[in-house]
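Fold this sequence, please.
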Amino acid sequence: MTAFDGQVAIVTGAARGLGRDYARYFAQDGANVVLADVKGTESAAEEASAAGPRCIGVECDVTDRASVAALIDRTKAEFGRLDILVNNAGVGGGGTYQVGQIRLLDVTEDIWELAWSVNVTGTLLCYQAAVPLMREGGSGRIINISSMAARSGGSPYGVTKQAVEHMTKGMAKEVGDDGITVNCIAPGICAFEAAKGALPNAEAVFAGNAIKRIGRSRELYDAMKYLCGPEASWITGQTLHVDGGAGLG
């Protein structure tokens, strides 16, 4: 028996990068997975399904309330339940990691709105839509994704990720009596294609870590797996930094 046999997980931003890895790992641990992204979920869903459980790709724009509602409706129609939501969809910037690197002094309205609409509003809309279906089942686990950038300041990306951590606390207070926990994972520099391309100086960044190497998607998932499991049923509203000790001084 695996950790999530018979459970259903939604992972947003699952067509590529860390989200794609999370979906595959959940499937390997027995969960049926709904992979949501604006496009390109087919191959990721096929890859996750290779582990055995049923996995489907759904096109979803997390910034659009109707699109998010359709995602939840599809999940209910296909599986009848929702146990886990991973709010992974996010942008670092317009095409690359501009939101993560541009200074607040230089940020334009379009870049600011892009970061806020996906990283913050998208997390909020998915939470609002998922909770009623979780309530029907009597329990649920919600994982929001922040970043080490939330602690460094100086970029629109960091601002939005700090907002996600703040929202996590409020969400946890609202749904604790429903048997739903809400926690946040704040990754450091991790090995996946987008981050490596966006941060050509990654080696210099993680040289300042206590553990001087790039992180692995599996290590992020293992933290997520713990927070979604029965052992963490009394943990909510927390942000777990999975970052190799970045920023310890």
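The longest strand covers residues 180-187. Strands lie at 8-12, 32-37, 55-59, 84-87, 140-145, 180-187, 239-242.
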